[in-house]
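WARN no homologs supplied; continuing
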Amino acid sequence: MQVRVDAGRTPVEGGIRAQADAVFDRIADVLAAEGATVADIVKVTYFLVDIADLEVVRQVVRERLPDPKPASSLVQVAALVDSRFRLEIEAIATAPQR
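OK structure emitted
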C-alpha cells in the first residue's frame, strides 16, 4: 500500500489532488524499479477518509491509468495511520518477464 511521504518520511501536505498525484508518482516509481509500469496494474484498492474526495480521485485515475482500467475497489475508512493522510492506494501489478 502506498501513502506519500517525502525523503524524510513526512507526509506530503496539500489537498486530495496533491496527495493522489503523489501516491500515483510513488506507485509508478516502485513499479519502474521492477521494470513495470502502471499499465501492468491489474487491481487497485482505494482507501478514502472522506468519500467526498472520490470525484477528484476518479479524475486522477482517468489521467494516470491507461485503458483498460484495472479492477478496483473503494473503501471508506474512519482514519489512516496519520491524520494528514486522506488517501491510501493498494496496487497489484503483474511482473514483466525477465
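The mean pLDDT is 90.
OK
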